[in-house]
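Sequence and structure are kept together here, with a separate record for every protein. A complete record is shown below as an example:
=====
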Amino acid sequence: MTSTGLSSDVLVPTAVGTRSRVASGAAVAVPPAALALALGLWGIRRGDSLWLDEAVSYQVAHRSTAQIWQLVHHVDAVHTLYYLGLHALFMLFGGGLITLRLPSVLGVAAAAAGVALLGRRLATPRAGLAAGLAFPVFPAIQLYAQDGRSYGIVCAGVVASALLLLRALDRPGVARWAAYAAVTLTTCLLHEYVVLAVAAQGVSLLLVRRRRGLPLGWLCAVAVVALGLVPLAQLSSSQSGQISWILPPRAPTVLFAVGISVVGVLCAILAPVPRSAPGGDRIDRIDRIDRIDRIDRTERSGGEMTLRAFALPLLLLPQTVLFLVTVVRPVYVDRYVLFEYAGLVLLIGAALDRLGRSSPRLGWRVLLAVPAALLLLLPVELKWRTPQAWPDDFAAAARAVHGYATPGAGVLFLPFERRQSELSYPRDFAGLTDLALSGNVADSGTIGGNEKSSQAVRAAMLLTTRIITVRSPGSRVPNASPQDAVKQSTLAADFQECARTEVRGLVVTSYARPGHCP
Protein backbone atom coordinates (compact mmCIF):
# COMPACT_ATOMS: atom_id res chain seq x y z
CA MET A 1 0.00 0.00 0.00
CA THR A 2 1.26 3.50 -0.82
CA SER A 3 2.49 5.49 2.16
CA THR A 4 -0.22 7.80 3.40
CA GLY A 5 1.88 10.46 5.02
CA LEU A 6 -0.58 10.70 7.92
CA SER A 7 0.63 10.77 11.47
CA SER A 8 -0.55 8.02 13.78
CA ASP A 9 -2.44 10.48 16.00
CA VAL A 10 -5.28 10.62 13.46
CA LEU A 11 -5.77 6.86 13.39
CA VAL A 12 -8.72 6.23 15.71
CA PRO A 13 -10.08 2.95 17.07
CA THR A 14 -12.55 1.25 14.75
CA ALA A 15 -15.69 1.82 16.85
CA VAL A 16 -14.88 5.45 17.53
CA GLY A 17 -13.90 5.95 13.91
CA THR A 18 -17.18 4.49 12.69
CA ARG A 19 -19.18 6.81 14.95
CA SER A 20 -17.07 9.74 13.80
CA ARG A 21 -17.59 8.90 10.14
CA VAL A 22 -21.35 8.69 10.70
CA ALA A 23 -21.27 12.04 12.49
CA SER A 24 -19.20 13.63 9.71
CA GLY A 25 -21.62 12.27 7.10
CA ALA A 26 -24.57 13.72 9.02
CA ALA A 27 -22.80 17.07 9.33
CA VAL A 28 -22.51 17.19 5.54
CA ALA A 29 -25.95 15.78 4.64
CA VAL A 30 -28.33 17.36 7.17
CA PRO A 31 -27.90 21.08 6.29
CA PRO A 32 -28.66 20.58 2.55
CA ALA A 33 -31.68 18.42 3.39
CA ALA A 34 -32.95 21.04 5.84
CA LEU A 35 -32.50 23.84 3.31
CA ALA A 36 -34.26 21.86 0.59
CA LEU A 37 -37.10 21.00 2.95
CA ALA A 38 -37.54 24.64 4.00
CA LEU A 39 -37.57 25.87 0.40
CA GLY A 40 -39.96 23.11 -0.63
CA LEU A 41 -42.47 23.78 2.14
CA TRP A 42 -42.35 27.55 1.59
CA GLY A 43 -45.55 28.44 -0.28
CA ILE A 44 -46.28 24.82 -1.14
CA ARG A 45 -50.01 25.43 -1.67
CA ARG A 46 -49.29 27.94 -4.45
CA GLY A 47 -52.64 29.67 -4.17
CA ASP A 48 -54.42 26.27 -4.09
CA SER A 49 -53.94 26.02 -7.85
CA LEU A 50 -53.08 23.11 -10.13
CA TRP A 51 -51.56 23.11 -13.58
CA LEU A 52 -52.44 20.50 -16.21
CA ASP A 53 -49.98 17.72 -15.30
CA GLU A 54 -50.63 18.13 -11.59
CA ALA A 55 -54.37 18.08 -12.19
CA VAL A 56 -53.96 14.75 -13.98
CA SER A 57 -51.93 13.34 -11.07
CA TYR A 58 -54.52 14.63 -8.62
CA GLN A 59 -57.59 13.14 -10.24
CA VAL A 60 -55.96 9.86 -11.33
CA ALA A 61 -54.63 9.21 -7.82
CA HIS A 62 -58.19 9.57 -6.52
CA ARG A 63 -59.31 6.64 -8.68
CA SER A 64 -59.37 3.06 -7.49
CA THR A 65 -56.43 0.75 -8.14
CA ALA A 66 -58.46 -1.10 -10.76
CA GLN A 67 -59.34 2.16 -12.53
CA ILE A 68 -55.69 3.26 -12.52
CA TRP A 69 -54.65 -0.13 -13.92
CA GLN A 70 -57.26 0.22 -16.66
CA LEU A 71 -56.04 3.74 -17.47
CA VAL A 72 -52.34 2.92 -17.85
CA HIS A 73 -53.12 0.17 -20.34
CA HIS A 74 -54.45 2.88 -22.64
CA VAL A 75 -52.43 5.98 -21.72
CA ASP A 76 -49.72 7.21 -19.31
CA ALA A 77 -48.10 3.81 -18.75
CA VAL A 78 -44.82 5.61 -17.97
CA HIS A 79 -46.39 7.00 -14.80
CA THR A 80 -47.90 3.74 -13.52
CA LEU A 81 -45.69 3.38 -10.45
CA TYR A 82 -46.07 7.06 -9.55
CA TYR A 83 -49.87 6.98 -9.81
CA LEU A 84 -50.12 3.83 -7.69
CA GLY A 85 -47.77 5.26 -5.05
CA LEU A 86 -49.65 8.54 -4.94
CA HIS A 87 -52.96 6.67 -4.70
CA ALA A 88 -51.62 4.83 -1.63
CA LEU A 89 -50.59 8.12 -0.04
CA PHE A 90 -54.02 9.62 -0.71
CA MET A 91 -55.60 6.62 0.98
CA LEU A 92 -53.39 7.06 4.05
CA PHE A 93 -53.16 10.84 4.42
CA GLY A 94 -56.03 12.30 2.41
CA GLY A 95 -56.01 13.57 -1.14
CA GLY A 96 -55.12 17.23 -0.66
CA LEU A 97 -52.56 19.51 -2.30
CA ILE A 98 -50.03 19.00 0.49
CA THR A 99 -50.14 15.23 0.05
CA LEU A 100 -49.86 15.69 -3.72
CA ARG A 101 -46.70 17.81 -3.55
CA LEU A 102 -45.00 16.57 -0.39
CA PRO A 103 -43.38 13.53 -2.09
CA SER A 104 -41.56 15.89 -4.45
CA VAL A 105 -40.43 18.08 -1.54
CA LEU A 106 -39.09 15.07 0.34
CA GLY A 107 -37.51 13.70 -2.84
CA VAL A 108 -35.55 16.88 -3.46
CA ALA A 109 -34.52 17.04 0.21
CA ALA A 110 -33.24 13.46 0.01
CA ALA A 111 -31.47 14.24 -3.27
CA ALA A 112 -29.75 17.28 -1.70
CA ALA A 113 -28.50 15.14 1.19
CA GLY A 114 -27.36 12.44 -1.23
CA VAL A 115 -25.52 14.94 -3.44
CA ALA A 116 -23.68 16.18 -0.35
CA LEU A 117 -22.65 12.62 0.50
CA LEU A 118 -21.52 12.07 -3.09
CA GLY A 119 -19.36 15.18 -2.97
CA ARG A 120 -17.90 14.09 0.37
CA ARG A 121 -17.20 10.62 -1.01
CA LEU A 122 -15.69 11.79 -4.30
CA ALA A 123 -13.87 14.90 -3.04
CA THR A 124 -13.99 16.57 0.39
CA PRO A 125 -16.59 17.34 3.05
CA ARG A 126 -16.58 21.02 2.07
CA ALA A 127 -17.10 20.18 -1.60
CA GLY A 128 -19.98 17.88 -0.65
CA LEU A 129 -21.61 20.42 1.64
CA ALA A 130 -21.31 23.13 -1.00
CA ALA A 131 -22.81 20.86 -3.66
CA GLY A 132 -25.66 19.75 -1.41
CA LEU A 133 -26.53 23.31 -0.44
CA ALA A 134 -26.36 24.51 -4.04
CA PHE A 135 -28.70 21.80 -5.33
CA PRO A 136 -32.03 23.12 -3.93
CA VAL A 137 -31.09 26.73 -4.73
CA PHE A 138 -31.38 26.31 -8.50
CA PRO A 139 -34.72 27.72 -9.71
CA ALA A 140 -35.59 24.58 -11.69
CA ILE A 141 -35.09 22.42 -8.60
CA GLN A 142 -37.21 24.76 -6.48
CA LEU A 143 -39.93 24.70 -9.14
CA TYR A 144 -40.21 20.93 -9.46
CA ALA A 145 -39.77 20.38 -5.73
CA GLN A 146 -43.34 21.67 -5.49
CA ASP A 147 -44.70 19.85 -8.53
CA GLY A 148 -47.18 17.02 -8.16
CA ARG A 149 -45.25 14.78 -10.54
CA SER A 150 -42.39 12.31 -10.16
CA TYR A 151 -39.38 14.48 -11.05
CA GLY A 152 -38.24 15.33 -7.50
CA ILE A 153 -38.52 11.68 -6.47
CA VAL A 154 -36.58 10.64 -9.58
CA CYS A 155 -33.73 12.97 -8.56
CA ALA A 156 -33.56 11.21 -5.20
CA GLY A 157 -33.55 7.82 -6.91
CA VAL A 158 -30.73 8.74 -9.30
CA VAL A 159 -28.58 10.06 -6.44
CA ALA A 160 -29.33 6.99 -4.29
CA SER A 161 -28.40 4.77 -7.23
CA ALA A 162 -25.06 6.58 -7.53
CA LEU A 163 -24.29 6.20 -3.83
CA LEU A 164 -25.07 2.48 -4.00
CA LEU A 165 -22.88 2.16 -7.08
CA LEU A 166 -19.91 3.70 -5.29
CA ARG A 167 -20.57 1.48 -2.28
CA ALA A 168 -20.58 -1.61 -4.49
CA LEU A 169 -17.37 -0.50 -6.18
CA ASP A 170 -15.69 -0.08 -2.79
CA ARG A 171 -16.52 -3.61 -1.63
CA PRO A 172 -18.17 -5.64 -4.41
CA GLY A 173 -20.70 -8.22 -3.31
CA VAL A 174 -23.97 -9.75 -4.45
CA ALA A 175 -26.02 -7.94 -1.80
CA ARG A 176 -24.60 -4.54 -2.74
CA TRP A 177 -25.09 -5.02 -6.45
CA ALA A 178 -28.62 -6.29 -5.80
CA ALA A 179 -29.42 -3.15 -3.79
CA TYR A 180 -28.05 -1.00 -6.62
CA ALA A 181 -30.13 -2.89 -9.20
CA ALA A 182 -33.32 -2.63 -7.10
CA VAL A 183 -33.06 1.14 -6.57
CA THR A 184 -32.06 1.77 -10.18
CA LEU A 185 -34.92 -0.30 -11.58
CA THR A 186 -37.46 1.38 -9.29
CA THR A 187 -36.24 4.81 -10.39
CA CYS A 188 -36.38 3.82 -14.06
CA LEU A 189 -39.95 2.64 -13.55
CA LEU A 190 -40.79 6.09 -12.19
CA HIS A 191 -39.42 7.66 -15.36
CA GLU A 192 -37.87 5.82 -18.28
CA TYR A 193 -35.39 8.61 -19.08
CA VAL A 194 -33.43 7.52 -15.98
CA VAL A 195 -31.77 4.99 -18.31
CA LEU A 196 -29.73 7.98 -19.51
CA ALA A 197 -28.36 8.39 -15.97
CA VAL A 198 -27.47 4.69 -15.96
CA ALA A 199 -25.67 5.17 -19.29
CA ALA A 200 -23.80 8.11 -17.75
CA GLN A 201 -22.69 5.85 -14.91
CA GLY A 202 -21.37 3.40 -17.49
CA VAL A 203 -19.34 6.17 -19.14
CA SER A 204 -17.96 7.16 -15.73
CA LEU A 205 -16.88 3.58 -15.07
CA LEU A 206 -15.15 3.37 -18.43
CA LEU A 207 -13.27 6.61 -17.72
CA VAL A 208 -11.76 5.26 -14.50
CA ARG A 209 -11.38 1.60 -15.57
CA ARG A 210 -9.90 1.95 -19.04
CA ARG A 211 -7.81 -1.21 -18.77
CA ARG A 212 -10.20 -3.53 -16.95
CA GLY A 213 -13.49 -2.48 -18.54
CA LEU A 214 -16.87 -2.46 -16.87
CA PRO A 215 -17.29 -4.43 -13.62
CA LEU A 216 -19.14 -7.72 -13.99
CA GLY A 217 -21.39 -6.85 -11.05
CA TRP A 218 -22.50 -3.62 -12.72
CA LEU A 219 -23.17 -5.40 -16.01
CA CYS A 220 -25.31 -8.00 -14.26
CA ALA A 221 -27.21 -5.30 -12.36
CA VAL A 222 -27.87 -3.36 -15.56
CA ALA A 223 -29.07 -6.55 -17.25
CA VAL A 224 -31.59 -7.03 -14.42
CA VAL A 225 -32.73 -3.41 -14.81
CA ALA A 226 -33.13 -3.84 -18.58
CA LEU A 227 -35.18 -7.02 -18.16
CA GLY A 228 -37.36 -5.35 -15.56
CA LEU A 229 -38.07 -2.45 -17.92
CA VAL A 230 -39.10 -4.59 -20.89
CA PRO A 231 -42.85 -4.77 -20.05
CA LEU A 232 -43.07 -1.02 -19.43
CA ALA A 233 -41.06 -0.24 -22.56
CA GLN A 234 -43.33 -2.38 -24.71
CA LEU A 235 -46.49 -0.81 -23.31
CA SER A 236 -45.24 2.77 -23.41
CA SER A 237 -43.96 2.39 -26.99
CA SER A 238 -47.55 1.71 -28.05
CA GLN A 239 -48.51 5.02 -26.43
CA SER A 240 -45.77 7.09 -28.07
CA GLY A 241 -48.38 9.47 -29.44
CA GLN A 242 -48.57 10.95 -25.95
CA ILE A 243 -45.42 12.97 -26.55
CA SER A 244 -46.64 14.38 -29.87
CA TRP A 245 -47.15 17.69 -28.07
CA ILE A 246 -43.38 18.12 -27.58
CA LEU A 247 -41.99 20.75 -29.96
CA PRO A 248 -38.37 21.25 -31.04
CA PRO A 249 -36.55 23.22 -28.33
CA ARG A 250 -36.41 26.96 -28.89
CA ALA A 251 -33.20 28.97 -28.90
CA PRO A 252 -33.45 30.07 -25.21
CA THR A 253 -33.85 26.44 -24.12
CA VAL A 254 -30.84 25.33 -26.14
CA LEU A 255 -28.73 28.27 -24.95
CA PHE A 256 -29.60 27.58 -21.31
CA ALA A 257 -28.69 23.90 -21.66
CA VAL A 258 -25.41 24.86 -23.33
CA GLY A 259 -24.79 27.46 -20.64
CA ILE A 260 -25.06 25.09 -17.69
CA SER A 261 -22.89 22.58 -19.58
CA VAL A 262 -20.20 25.20 -20.08
CA VAL A 263 -20.36 26.15 -16.40
CA GLY A 264 -19.92 22.51 -15.44
CA VAL A 265 -16.99 21.97 -17.82
CA LEU A 266 -15.25 25.15 -16.61
CA CYS A 267 -15.64 24.05 -12.99
CA ALA A 268 -14.20 20.65 -13.91
CA ILE A 269 -11.21 22.24 -15.66
CA LEU A 270 -10.46 24.98 -13.17
CA ALA A 271 -11.19 23.16 -9.95
CA PRO A 272 -9.89 19.57 -9.96
CA VAL A 273 -10.16 17.94 -6.55
CA PRO A 274 -7.20 15.83 -5.40
CA ARG A 275 -7.79 12.40 -3.96
CA SER A 276 -6.60 13.43 -0.55
CA ALA A 277 -7.18 17.13 -0.07
CA PRO A 278 -5.39 18.85 2.80
CA GLY A 279 -7.53 19.80 5.73
CA GLY A 280 -7.02 20.60 9.37
CA ASP A 281 -10.34 19.92 11.02
CA ARG A 282 -11.54 16.63 12.47
CA ILE A 283 -14.05 15.91 9.70
CA ASP A 284 -11.34 16.30 7.05
CA ARG A 285 -8.97 13.98 8.93
CA ILE A 286 -11.61 11.27 9.29
CA ASP A 287 -12.53 11.53 5.62
CA ARG A 288 -8.87 11.35 4.55
CA ILE A 289 -8.56 8.05 6.40
CA ASP A 290 -11.65 6.73 4.59
CA ARG A 291 -10.34 7.97 1.25
CA ILE A 292 -6.96 6.33 1.70
CA ASP A 293 -8.66 3.03 2.53
CA ARG A 294 -10.77 3.34 -0.63
CA ILE A 295 -7.75 4.21 -2.76
CA ASP A 296 -5.98 1.10 -1.51
CA ARG A 297 -8.96 -1.08 -2.48
CA THR A 298 -9.73 0.60 -5.79
CA GLU A 299 -6.13 0.56 -6.97
CA ARG A 300 -6.38 -3.21 -6.74
CA SER A 301 -9.76 -3.29 -8.53
CA GLY A 302 -8.99 -1.02 -11.45
CA GLY A 303 -9.12 2.66 -10.45
CA GLU A 304 -10.94 5.07 -8.13
CA MET A 305 -14.01 7.00 -9.20
CA THR A 306 -13.27 10.72 -9.31
CA LEU A 307 -15.69 13.59 -9.03
CA ARG A 308 -15.05 14.81 -12.55
CA ALA A 309 -15.39 11.33 -14.05
CA PHE A 310 -18.73 10.90 -12.30
CA ALA A 311 -20.27 14.39 -12.57
CA LEU A 312 -19.46 15.36 -16.16
CA PRO A 313 -21.21 12.40 -17.85
CA LEU A 314 -24.25 12.86 -15.59
CA LEU A 315 -24.45 16.52 -16.61
CA LEU A 316 -23.66 16.19 -20.30
CA LEU A 317 -24.85 12.81 -21.58
CA PRO A 318 -28.63 12.90 -20.88
CA GLN A 319 -29.30 16.27 -22.47
CA THR A 320 -26.90 15.59 -25.36
CA VAL A 321 -28.67 12.34 -26.22
CA LEU A 322 -32.10 14.00 -26.10
CA PHE A 323 -30.97 16.90 -28.30
CA LEU A 324 -29.55 14.45 -30.85
CA VAL A 325 -32.75 12.40 -30.89
CA THR A 326 -34.72 15.63 -31.27
CA VAL A 327 -33.19 16.03 -34.72
CA VAL A 328 -35.37 13.07 -35.75
CA ARG A 329 -38.25 13.50 -33.30
CA PRO A 330 -38.70 16.12 -30.57
CA VAL A 331 -38.27 14.47 -27.17
CA TYR A 332 -36.39 17.08 -25.12
CA VAL A 333 -38.16 18.52 -22.08
CA ASP A 334 -35.91 19.97 -19.38
CA ARG A 335 -37.78 18.42 -16.45
CA TYR A 336 -37.33 14.93 -17.92
CA VAL A 337 -33.59 15.16 -17.15
CA LEU A 338 -33.81 17.28 -14.00
CA PHE A 339 -31.38 14.86 -12.33
CA GLU A 340 -28.55 16.31 -14.43
CA TYR A 341 -28.36 19.16 -11.87
CA ALA A 342 -26.78 16.67 -9.47
CA GLY A 343 -23.77 16.51 -11.79
CA LEU A 344 -23.68 20.29 -12.16
CA VAL A 345 -23.71 21.06 -8.44
CA LEU A 346 -21.02 18.47 -7.72
CA LEU A 347 -18.73 20.36 -10.08
CA ILE A 348 -19.75 23.70 -8.57
CA GLY A 349 -19.10 22.32 -5.09
CA ALA A 350 -15.62 21.23 -6.17
CA ALA A 351 -14.96 24.71 -7.56
CA LEU A 352 -16.05 26.37 -4.31
CA ASP A 353 -13.92 23.93 -2.34
CA ARG A 354 -10.89 24.76 -4.49
CA LEU A 355 -11.56 28.46 -3.94
CA GLY A 356 -11.73 27.91 -0.20
CA ARG A 357 -8.44 26.00 -0.19
CA SER A 358 -6.69 28.57 -2.34
CA SER A 359 -7.28 31.38 0.16
CA PRO A 360 -6.83 30.84 3.93
CA ARG A 361 -9.12 33.80 4.55
CA LEU A 362 -12.00 32.16 2.73
CA GLY A 363 -11.98 28.55 3.90
CA TRP A 364 -15.50 27.49 4.81
CA ARG A 365 -16.72 31.05 4.13
CA VAL A 366 -17.14 30.07 0.47
CA LEU A 367 -20.43 28.52 1.57
CA LEU A 368 -21.79 32.05 1.99
CA ALA A 369 -22.27 31.92 -1.78
CA VAL A 370 -25.43 29.89 -1.11
CA PRO A 371 -27.37 32.52 0.92
CA ALA A 372 -26.07 35.16 -1.51
CA ALA A 373 -27.57 33.20 -4.42
CA LEU A 374 -30.85 32.81 -2.53
CA LEU A 375 -31.07 36.57 -2.07
CA LEU A 376 -30.22 37.28 -5.71
CA LEU A 377 -32.89 34.83 -6.85
CA LEU A 378 -35.55 36.14 -4.46
CA PRO A 379 -37.76 37.69 -7.22
CA VAL A 380 -37.75 34.35 -9.07
CA GLU A 381 -38.38 32.40 -5.87
CA LEU A 382 -41.40 34.56 -5.03
CA LYS A 383 -42.86 34.09 -8.51
CA TRP A 384 -42.20 30.34 -8.42
CA ARG A 385 -44.62 30.09 -5.50
CA THR A 386 -47.55 31.54 -7.42
CA PRO A 387 -49.77 30.02 -10.12
CA GLN A 388 -48.06 32.34 -12.62
CA ALA A 389 -44.98 30.10 -12.63
CA TRP A 390 -46.88 27.37 -14.50
CA PRO A 391 -48.40 27.13 -17.99
CA ASP A 392 -52.02 27.20 -16.78
CA ASP A 393 -54.12 27.90 -13.69
CA PHE A 394 -57.09 25.56 -13.39
CA ALA A 395 -58.17 27.01 -10.04
CA ALA A 396 -58.60 30.47 -11.55
CA ALA A 397 -60.49 28.97 -14.50
CA ALA A 398 -62.83 27.11 -12.14
CA ARG A 399 -63.52 30.31 -10.18
CA ALA A 400 -64.36 32.12 -13.40
CA VAL A 401 -66.76 29.34 -14.39
CA HIS A 402 -68.42 29.57 -10.99
CA GLY A 403 -68.88 33.30 -11.49
CA TYR A 404 -70.69 32.76 -14.80
CA ALA A 405 -72.70 29.70 -13.74
CA THR A 406 -76.49 29.77 -13.76
CA PRO A 407 -78.86 26.80 -13.20
CA GLY A 408 -79.28 24.71 -16.31
CA ALA A 409 -76.29 26.16 -18.17
CA GLY A 410 -73.98 23.88 -20.11
CA VAL A 411 -70.19 23.69 -20.12
CA LEU A 412 -67.79 22.69 -22.87
CA PHE A 413 -64.02 22.15 -22.98
CA LEU A 414 -61.78 22.86 -25.97
CA PRO A 415 -59.79 20.65 -26.22
CA PHE A 416 -61.07 17.94 -23.90
CA GLU A 417 -57.90 18.13 -21.74
CA ARG A 418 -59.30 21.36 -20.28
CA ARG A 419 -61.89 19.19 -18.53
CA GLN A 420 -59.27 18.80 -15.80
CA SER A 421 -60.60 22.05 -14.34
CA GLU A 422 -63.98 20.39 -13.75
CA LEU A 423 -62.46 17.14 -12.49
CA SER A 424 -60.16 18.96 -10.05
CA TYR A 425 -62.63 21.59 -8.81
CA PRO A 426 -66.09 19.97 -9.12
CA ARG A 427 -67.72 22.32 -6.63
CA ASP A 428 -67.26 25.28 -8.96
CA PHE A 429 -69.09 23.35 -11.70
CA ALA A 430 -72.03 22.29 -9.53
CA GLY A 431 -75.32 22.70 -11.39
CA LEU A 432 -73.69 22.80 -14.84
CA THR A 433 -74.17 20.11 -17.47
CA ASP A 434 -71.12 18.81 -19.35
CA LEU A 435 -72.70 18.79 -22.81
CA ALA A 436 -70.04 16.66 -24.51
CA LEU A 437 -69.09 14.09 -21.85
CA SER A 438 -70.20 10.52 -22.36
CA GLY A 439 -70.15 8.38 -19.22
CA ASN A 440 -68.04 8.47 -16.08
CA VAL A 441 -64.45 9.68 -16.57
CA ALA A 442 -62.87 7.38 -13.98
CA ASP A 443 -64.46 4.30 -15.55
CA SER A 444 -63.53 5.28 -19.11
CA GLY A 445 -59.90 4.24 -18.99
CA THR A 446 -58.94 7.73 -20.17
CA ILE A 447 -57.56 10.86 -18.52
CA GLY A 448 -60.26 13.28 -19.64
CA GLY A 449 -63.19 11.03 -20.47
CA ASN A 450 -64.89 10.05 -23.73
CA GLU A 451 -66.98 12.55 -25.63
CA LYS A 452 -70.25 12.02 -27.49
CA SER A 453 -70.43 12.00 -31.27
CA SER A 454 -70.29 15.32 -33.06
CA GLN A 455 -74.00 15.14 -33.88
CA ALA A 456 -74.90 14.41 -30.24
CA VAL A 457 -72.77 17.31 -29.03
CA ARG A 458 -74.46 19.71 -31.46
CA ALA A 459 -77.90 18.49 -30.46
CA ALA A 460 -77.14 19.00 -26.76
CA MET A 461 -75.86 22.52 -27.46
CA LEU A 462 -78.97 23.51 -29.39
CA LEU A 463 -81.14 22.46 -26.44
CA THR A 464 -79.25 24.85 -24.15
CA THR A 465 -79.75 28.58 -23.70
CA ARG A 466 -76.42 29.38 -22.00
CA ILE A 467 -73.02 27.70 -22.42
CA ILE A 468 -69.70 28.32 -20.65
CA THR A 469 -66.50 27.24 -22.37
CA VAL A 470 -63.06 26.56 -20.92
CA ARG A 471 -60.50 26.55 -23.68
CA SER A 472 -56.89 27.13 -24.62
CA PRO A 473 -56.09 30.72 -25.64
CA GLY A 474 -55.95 31.65 -29.33
CA SER A 475 -58.29 31.12 -32.23
CA ARG A 476 -57.12 27.56 -32.92
CA VAL A 477 -57.76 24.59 -30.66
CA PRO A 478 -54.61 22.46 -30.24
CA ASN A 479 -55.11 18.81 -31.25
CA ALA A 480 -58.69 19.62 -32.20
CA SER A 481 -61.10 16.71 -32.55
CA PRO A 482 -64.19 16.58 -34.81
CA GLN A 483 -66.26 17.36 -31.71
CA ASP A 484 -64.17 20.50 -31.11
CA ALA A 485 -64.87 21.68 -34.64
CA VAL A 486 -68.63 21.23 -34.08
CA LYS A 487 -68.45 23.06 -30.74
CA GLN A 488 -66.79 26.05 -32.40
CA SER A 489 -69.06 26.17 -35.44
CA THR A 490 -72.26 25.87 -33.37
CA LEU A 491 -71.14 28.58 -30.95
CA ALA A 492 -70.33 30.90 -33.86
CA ALA A 493 -73.63 30.26 -35.67
CA ASP A 494 -76.17 29.98 -32.87
CA PHE A 495 -74.74 31.78 -29.81
CA GLN A 496 -73.30 35.17 -28.93
CA GLU A 497 -70.44 35.91 -26.57
CA CYS A 498 -71.59 37.54 -23.34
CA ALA A 499 -68.44 37.77 -21.24
CA ARG A 500 -64.87 36.51 -21.19
CA THR A 501 -62.23 35.98 -18.50
CA GLU A 502 -58.60 35.25 -19.35
CA VAL A 503 -56.50 33.48 -16.74
CA ARG A 504 -53.07 31.92 -16.90
CA GLY A 505 -53.07 29.65 -19.98
CA LEU A 506 -56.89 29.44 -20.22
CA VAL A 507 -59.87 31.45 -21.42
CA VAL A 508 -63.33 31.13 -19.84
CA THR A 509 -66.17 32.50 -21.98
CA SER A 510 -69.89 32.81 -21.31
CA TYR A 511 -72.19 32.36 -24.34
CA ALA A 512 -75.94 32.65 -24.72
CA ARG A 513 -78.57 32.48 -27.42
CA PRO A 514 -79.00 35.91 -29.09
CA GLY A 515 -80.86 38.24 -26.74
CA HIS A 516 -80.30 36.06 -23.66
CA CYS A 517 -77.07 37.51 -22.30
CA PRO A 518 -77.56 38.61 -18.67
